[in-house]
Prior knowledge:
Blueprint: H1 2-16, E1 26-29, E2 39-42, E3 47-51, E4 55-56, E5 59-60, E6 63-67, E7 73-75, E8 89-94, E9 100-111, E10 114-125, E11 129-134, H2 136-149, H3 164-169, H4 175-180, E12 187-194, H5 201-221, E13 225-232, E14 236-240, H6 248-256, H7 267-278, E15 290-297, H8 308-312, E16 320-327, H9 334-343, H10 348-351, E17 352-355, H11 365-375, E18 391-397, E19 403-407, H12 410-413, E20 416-420, E21 426-429, E22 444-450, E23 453-460, E24 468-473, E25 479-484, E26 495-499, E27 509-514, E28 525-532, E29 535-542, E30 556-561, E31 570-575, E32 585-589, E33 591-592, E34 595-596, E35 602-605, E36 619-624, E37 633-638, E38 641-646, E39 650-660, H13 666-670, E40 676-687, E41 697-705, E42 714-716, E43 723-730, E44 740-744, E45 755-763, E46 774-775, E47 782-787, E48 803-808, E49 814-817, E50 822-831, E51 836-837, E52 840-844, E53 849-856, E54 863-866, E55 873-878, E56 882-883, E57 888-897, E58 907-916, E59 922-936, E60 938-946, E61 949-953, E62 960-972, E63 979-986, E64 988-989, E65 992-1001, E66 1007-1012, E67 1017-1024, ...
Parallel strand pairs: 12-13, 12-15, 15-16, 16-17, 39-46, 49-59, 59-70, 61-71
Antiparallel strand pairs: 1-38, 2-3, 3-6, 4-5, 6-7, 8-9, 9-10, 10-11, 13-14, 18-19, 19-20, 20-21, 22-23, 23-24, 24-25, 26-27, 27-28, 28-29, 30-31, 31-32, 32-35, 33-34, 36-37, 37-38, 39-40, 40-44, 41-43, 41-45, 42-44, 45-47, 48-50, 50-57, 51-56, 52-55, 52-58, 53-57, 54-55, 58-59, 60-62, 62-68, ...
Amino acid sequence: MAHNCLLWLITVYAVEGFNIYSKPIKTFEELNSPSLGQSVLQYEDGILVTSPLDNMSDQQYGRLYDCKVSAQCTEVSLTAKEKSYRKPIISAAKSSDGSTYLVCQQHRTRKATNEDLNGVCSLLKAGFQEISDIAPASLVVKQMKRNNTNANKQEDESLSVNSGSALHRRKRESSNQEEEEDEDAGTEIAFVLDGSGSISGEDFERAKEFVTNVMKNVWETCFDCRFALVQYGKDIRTELSLKENEKPEYALRKVSDIQQIYNYTKTASAMYHVLEHVFVAENGSKENAKKIMIVLTDGKIFLDTMNLSDVLMMPKMKAVTRFAIGVGADFNQTKAVTELQDIASDPDDEHLFKVDNYAALDGILSLLEKSITGIEGTQQGAAFLFELSEAGFSIDFAIDGTVLFGAVGAYDWNGGLIIKNPDDTIRFLNESSTKEKLSYLGYSVAAVKGVSGSLYVSGAPRHSFSGSVLVFNGTSHAAQQTLSGEQVGSYFGAELCVLDTDKNGITDHLLIGAPLFHQKGEEGKVYVYRLSQGLFIKESEWRGMNRYTFARFGSAIANIGDIDDNGYNDIAVGAPMEGDGKSGSIYIYNGYENGIKDHHSQRIAAADFDVKLRFFGQSVSGMSDLDKDGQIDISVGSLGKVTVLSSLPVIVFKPQVTLDPPYISLNKQSGQDSKKISAKICFNSVKREIKKKTEELPIHYHLVLDPNKEKKRLSFANGDPKSISGIFKLTNTMECLPDILLQFLECADDCFSPVEIKLNFTLNLSSESRPLRVLDMLSPNEISQQLPFETNCGTDKICTANITLSTSLPQDKTLVIGSTKDLSLGFNMKNIGEDSHMTILVLTYPHFLQYNKLSLLTENKGISCANPVDNTKLTCQIRYPVMKAQSEVNFTISWQIEESHKIQENSTQITANITCENNGLQVLTEETYRFAVKNALKVSLTGKAKPAYIHVTEESMGKKQELEYLFQIHGENRYNANIVVNIDIPLKERDTQVTIVSYKARHTTNCSAQPQDNGKTYRLTCTVQELDELLTVEASVAVISIKDQRENLTARAFLSFDSAQYEADEGGRYEEVLVTIEKLTVVKSMAVIVGSSIGGFVFLAFLILILIKCGFFRRRYQKARVEQKSDQDM
């Protein structure tokens, strides 16, 4: 039990605590930087840390920090900091040689009312001195303009877009000029809504719905458009002010909740109200904002105290663009139309709209929206091209210095990839400017170094809804492969990491994060692809621990270098929302000679630290030794903090167990020599050995003797037969334990298979102090040493057994289930070769045989058989542990035959297999014995006729008489055989004619009848399973004439069945039923009758005369007279 516990502890340590020390060596935190740690980029001496949401002067600029373990974080000054309104730092990268850094900030600017959100990237050299600025989107636009203005130059194939003419029409200044322009104040749109009594409640609801649709559609293309609404009727009131636009849902709800005022149509007063109470600074209006007024009314002005002309001539009205919408039949009148024309700005065809009713307002919705957005200079609608591309959202360096910029918002958020080559040429790559809208291509980018050239990889997490990763050829810039996600909404491609696993300069693996992959929540997943012949082949999938349903595993993936010092780079994966309170975790995966291990070697949870962290693992970086202790460190970003963790040196042992003597001699086995054996254990280090004299590495060891044997053959000399444990302190001068004395016991059961000596070891680490070393997870922490037995097998020390097998088989090789009760086989085994160790006979037999017993002769002891696990296999140990040369055994094995189930097979076999373990497991002999198999069927047939005799006279000649045949089936049909009964009844025998009237069966309905032999015979065939079946055939018999005094009608019945599956006795399967027909003769002569009668009377008279003569009657008379006289006397 102790041995099992040790193995469990070793497993737990390997998984949960490999060589990242779980106590941080440094935690960085800036009081005014709540978003510190959004991304981390480790370099040789420190960490570049972004804090994109830092505020300066009430504006969100973001900061970049340089953090060193030996000091604190200092801000890196970027000269572009003061050039624009908003610049969150969102990405950072370094070149492969570490000499150049690139940091991209997203600048939000406005020209007129068009939004522009794009990256300006700062190129930094060592020491973070700024070399230059790069505006990747502007570079692409300039390149496209040059391509489109040169008619004789073919459009560059790498710019897979068809938007040159649209760009040519755009009057855009250079990026530097744009940055210097003042911020646009936006657009203010005020609705003037008629709520008078002439409008029904239903139409007023339609008017409100029209207003909300305009607001929603304009907001899709105008980010700084704000709305107000004034309703007029009996009163005039502001229903929605310009200040109430911060939350669109709230503004739309306020419009929807408006209650109609009713009564008058005070249009002029309402327009005046907009000028004096809506477009004013105290109610949220900006002086330089463009102002639009939209009047929606159902008729001309009524009972208004103000004059429309006076209001229109007010100075403030000159800066307002007015739209007029007239609803209903009133605007067929000249006065109402004139009033509507006065309200609308010129020209009327662009600013005046008329509809027949409120239900028709939706018909002008797109026209009104187009007119409004046309004023705003956003006629391109949702196709923003590069204005909102966020170029630099993700960045990476290729090994040749090419820079990759992700432009996630380009082409209406279809996205793309901007390539800046070392010669400053620019390429824009995407799938198509017209396909897969909102795919977010450029969300992540990575440069791959293949055997045949570079590849540029970019993630599009919303491509085809389930996400994709596009792979572009670095030379032709064509898209050569698309890797597709497997689940809608999983954000497959949100994170990319390329890994040169074996550190040979060629990319081996691509890791793709899908942090929103969901089963019960948002668990996340990472997909591992191997690069093979220029294509990525899926190799495996990784997931975090199952119990965390909202971990977002795969939000960050980083190559952290060879932290375990085995020559292969390793990976860290962030799960920033894993754990209670979304504290977060990271997982470590180790590279090795065949790739990357599929199971993590270590999970580091923020909850294990003393400090409270949130979103630990949102970013991660490694590859450098920050504290200069000779070990790679890794940096992990969380919300507002960066944690630095150190790796521990990994030691690799090659332990040796040396035995003296190295084998158990024949004399030791016989007890003639001493049974003592000496064992020496040494822990030889092959990596990160102990060099300092002051260092001691405690090793916990556990030594087990003969672990797989219940009866031990070796013990410790102190009497413990099982195992010993201890702690050995490894130093630079001591690698071996003191000799351990062992003692050979005996080998009654097994004197051939070597005695195993198993050594387990682990480091005796303390949770209080930093470990000096850790064991390599990929190297074994268990070794096994074999202590062989000396054998008597000649000079070559190799025993070659040769065992013959002969078998006595029964004469009848047919097994009848239900009849045959048992089966016995006699075996003779003879070893005509050298000693056979651990000889085993394995008999494999069918399931209906049940092992009964082993029969041995007195001189053939040393054989035992058992089948404890498999009821169809019998294992016999033959002369254990050694079957000597020239030895012979005879034995019999018997089985009982199971009768409870029918056997479908027509044949079966018993296989004999003889093995030994002389030189590993060897098969010596194989034999197969085949038997036929049938099922027993006990069945017989009886029959009778009613009547058995038929008497015929001349008077009954030709008349029909009834006849009935009855056949009864008897016996046992325990295996449900289909028994076929055939009954043949003669229809004509000489001058006897038989007619079948009917037939019936007691149980079966599977019967058929038909004449045979040209109508001479009637055959009834029935298939039955019930053995109490009674078959009855009713017939009529007519005798035409009988030449002889007697004739016989013979009916025959016989049984048949599948003889391949069943066996039955021959007797009783055939039955004959005989019906005898006899003729009776009647005499009819009158003379004979009369003569006989007269003769009789004469004879009677003669007899009476004789009696009289003899006195017969007289004596009786005299006696009667005497009796009469006597009575009288009395």
